[in-house]
Design goal:
GO terms for molecular function: 4 iron, 4 sulfur cluster binding; catalytic activity; metal ion binding. It comes from Hominifimenecus microfluidus. By secondary structure, the protein is α/β, with parallel strands linked by helices. The chain has helices spanning about 40-55, 75-85, 100-105, 120-125, 130-145, 165-175, 195-215, 230-235, 290-295, 320-330; strands at about 5-10, 60-65, 90, 110-115, 150-155, 180-185, 220-225, 260-265, 270, 280-285. The two termini are about 35 Å apart.
């Protein structure tokens, strides 16, 4: 059993970027920015610890925003987590990092720091902020020197998909410790998300070849094949096989929504997934997490409802990305728009 239960925790909406694909600054709710008070943040930690004890697990926080460093009580929270021996990753921007700040973060127990590269210089700076491409790669060195795992995440859309192979080269050259990419969830902004299944599969093919070449050369970067469609890709290539002892009805992998992950928004709302914008199920200061997990979250783990994945032999390990399906067609259980599989290879049943 996984010893951790993970929480993506947004402590503030404040940010010194306005990224074109950001879910915080899109839609009707983007006018008011929230930040938790110190008392509210302490309550979040207490509530999550109490909940995890029920399942004999430890909370693991992915602390983000906005940019979490901008919260006025950021360092107070860092020290508090250190006293509780709670592990965490930070997901933020490069602008406020330097060698001293990174050493302080390491002393507080920060294990990883995740930043973004969404294309090469011109494209990334268009998505996010002029100058942020070069600054992001520069700050990788600060994190590495402090002993914090530097993580780069790319958000892939049709706008930048052709640049992802070059991004891989850039992160390897910068000695990034972990690299991964996920797909853009449509929010009605300026980003073109309309990759075809065939285009996305070709991108995985190109990236897989680069990953393997770098791995064979002893590259320091770990390539996290994060998108669950990697499971389908590796299944077709014979690198993933269905375990002989797998039990019907069990879920072994794929999306963690409803399995071991919850999002806590800056206003205290509990969400099944931050990328599923309409997935609010409760509020951390008003509702008991154990009750929410057993009751309201049940609607996100009804695996028979998946219109395509429920008929697929990979259902227990893949299921694509429900957030992308929800953002594209408004249906959490709808077909992943970039999934290219059309038939159950065991039963011969059509999936579409």
């Amino acid at each position: 059993m996984n010893p951790y239960f993970s929480f993506q925790w947004h402590i503030t909406d404040e940010c010194d970027q306005r990224c074109k694909h950001c879910y915080i600054f899109s839609g009707e709710g983007c006018q008011k920015l929230h930040s938790m008070t110190w008392e509210q943040m302490r309550a979040v930690v207490d509530n999550c610890e109490d909940f995890c004890k029920v399942y004999y697990r430890t909370p693991y926080f992915y602390i983000t925003g906005g940019d979490p460093v901008l919260h006025p009580d950021f360092w107070k929270l860092m020290v508090f987590l250190k006293t509780r021996n709670i592990p965490f990753t930070l997901m933020g921007n490069p602008f406020h990092l330097d060698d001293e700040i990174c050493r302080m973060l390491k002393a507080c127990g920060c294990e990883k720091y995740q930043m973004s590269l969404d294309g090469m210089r011109k494209t990334h700076d268009w998505f996010r902020k002029p100058g942020s491409f070069d600054l992001t790669l520069e700050k990788v060195g600060c994190l590495n020197r402090a002993g914090i795992k530097s993580v780069i995440m790319s958000t892939v859309s049709k706008t930048n998909m052709e640049e992802i192979p070059d991004v891989i080269d850039a992160v390897v050259q910068a000695k990034v410790r972990v690299f991964a990419f996920s797909r853009y969830v449509p929010t009605g902004g300026e980003v073109d998300a309309s990759m075809t299944p065939q285009e996305y599969r070709e991108l995985l093919t190109v990236c897989d070849a680069k990953f393997k070449a770098y791995e064979a050369a002893g590259c320091e970067t770990f390539f996290n094949r994060k998108d669950h469609l990697w499971t389908l890709y590796q299944y077709e290539n014979g690198e993933f096989q269905l375990p002989a002892g797998a039990k019907d009805g069990m879920i072994y992998g794929g999306c963690n929504c409803g399995n071991c992950h919850i999002t806590i928004a800056s206003n205290g709302d509990i969400m099944a997934c931050r990328r599923v914008t309409d997935s609010r199920v409760a509020n951390i200061w008003e509702d008991r997490l154990a009750d929410v997990w057993l009751c309201q979250m049940e609607q996100y783990r009804d695996y028979e409802k998946f219109k395509k994945c429920s008929k697929c032999e990979l259902r227990a390990w893949c299921r694509g990305c429900p957030a992308v399906a929800n953002g594209t067609i408004g249906d959490f259980y709808g077909a992943d728009p970039q999934c290219w599989k059309t038939k159950n290879d065991i039963t011969g049943e059509d999936l579409l």
